[in-house]
Design goal:
Mean pLDDT: 93
Strand content: 5-15%
Number of helices: 16
Low-confidence stretches: 1-18
Length: 442
């Protein structure tokens, strides 16, 4: 198969686009025969069902998911953090890492920055680097869950909801700054998540906290450029464990409606209480044209931020069923912000993100196989068994050959993880960066 002609990271800026393409082609050559066999078998089956195979591949090829700048290093817990080595210490290195993921998967065509962790020192250079890797700038994210360095005010007791006007004004100013930074990079969206809440009964006046948050968000919304969106995230608990100000989709929806037509709710799959019916939430927000985007991850107990599809793949599929229906019913619903928000400390971060991208593509492909007209007719006839069969037939179809074919056609790797390991990318990153670098983020 051969080694990289030049060290991967040291020559990334000037070499990776051409070099990666050749190495991926070499890797694919060893897997192409088996892929052709698998794809032909699946194609014959899907053709008998009357499914438009090439249209599905086109839809998979066009689907891009943003990589958050904070997920490229080892994540951690409240008890510890264990570096994997070769972590990106600068924004430039983070974009280079996303370039590696995108080259292998052809589905990571955007980066989502978290401010103030990733403020560019040279906007022109950062934009050129991102363009080299065919990476766009997706939503920018503000941070008021930590105290900024040398700040006059503290967010210990909240930010946009704080009883102190000075604290609220500082948080509002930060969000406006994030918008300005995003505008310089070509982003069109800001995501706001608040850690605001309380740990004990009586600590916070719920009504006043919500009123302060509403007024603060309206002021931030007023600073948006005309073609921008504001995404309002919600979470039932953590870091506060008695209450959070924006605790559920209903509160987020209420705030988005209050702010205006360019404000939307953002669904993080981990930001729900156990066994929440997330697909119903998605359907409701789609119906009201207030779904703005997704943060993909997976969980067993809470906001575990585990690899997408590793715990509840069927739930992910059911969510995509609602998304496919929503996008078919209203073309405006296609303009959503998609991002992975997974982070933990026992996997190579790049491998974890590649696995997540694969799981997202698989769930999307499975949902595209559902005969939506037949499902609608079965629902009208109250044929519950037929409804279940239509969904489970699509879910039980091994669509991996479709996903691999979409990657291969776009120039990606048929097997991104195997290619990543065969080429020794992590070893090269460690050789270039060392074992002690620590990426900014959680």
């Amino acid at each position: 198969m051969g080694a990289w002609p030049m060290p991967l990271y040291a020559n990334l800026n000037r070499y990776t686009v051409k070099g990666t393409k050749q190495q991926i082609e070499d890797s694919n050559r060893t897997r192409l025969q088996q892929q052709d066999v698998d794809f032909d078998a699946l194609s014959q089956r899907l053709s008998r069902q009357g499914l438009p195979i090439h249209e599905i591949i086109d839809q998979l090829s066009a689907f891009q998911v943003a990589i958050p700048s904070w997920a490229l290093g080892a994540g951690g817990t409240r008890f510890g953090r264990f570096s994997y080595g070769g972590e990106p210490a600068t924004l430039e290195q983070k974009i280079a890492d996303i370039g590696i993921i995108h080259a292998l998967t052809q589905s990571a065509g955007a980066v989502s920055l978290h401010i103030p962790w990733d403020i560019p020192s040279d906007y022109k250079a950062i934009k050129e680097l991102a363009q080299l890797h065919n990476i766009a700038f997706d939503a920018v994210n503000s941070n008021t869950f930590q105290d900024p360095a040398n700040a006059k005010e503290s967010y210990k007791y909240g930010s946009l909801s704080n009883t102190s006007k000075a604290v609220r004004e500082q948080a509002i100013a930060h969000n406006k700054e994030v918008i300005e930074i995003g505008a310089q990079l070509g982003s069109k969206c800001i995501t706001i998540w608040l850690a605001d809440g309380s740990n004990f009964p009586g600590q916070t006046n719920f009504k006043k906290a919500l009123e302060h948050t509403t007024d603060s968000l309206k002021e931030i919304y007023g600073a948006l450029p005309a073609d921008w969106k504001m995404l309002i995230e919600y979470k039932p608990y953590e870091p506060n464990f008695y209450s959070t100000v924006i605790q559920d989709w209903g509160t987020s929806f209420l705030l988005a409606n209050t702010c205006g037509e360019n404000a939307f709710s953002l669904v993080d799959l981990g930001h729900h209480l156990p066994n929440s019916n997330i697909e119903q939430i998605v359907a409701t927000l789609l119906l009201k044209n207030k779904l703005g985007g997704f943060h993909f991850n997976d969980s067993k107990y809470g906001d575990d931020d585990l690899t997408v599809g590793s715990i509840k793949p069927y739930a992910l599929f059911l969510i995509f069923n609602e998304l496919v229906q929503g996008m078919q019913d209203d073309p405006k619903n296609k303009d959503l912000a998609w991002m992975i928000d997974a982070s933990h400390n026992i996997k190579d971060p790049l491998e974890d993100l590649i696995q997540s991208l694969d799981a997202i593509s698989i769930a999307y492909a499975q949902a595209l196989l559902i005969d939506q007209e037949a499902l609608a007719e079965a629902q009208l006839q109250h044929d519950v068994v037929r409804c279940q069969e239509l969904l489970q037939d699509a879910y039980r179809t091994d669509v991996r050959p479709l996903v691999k074919e979409a990657r291969r056609i776009n120039g990606g790797a048929i097997d991104p993880i195997a290619t990543y390991r065969t080429l020794g990318i992590r070893k090269q990153l460690i050789a270039e960066r060392g074992t002690k670098t620590v990426a900014t983020g959680l």
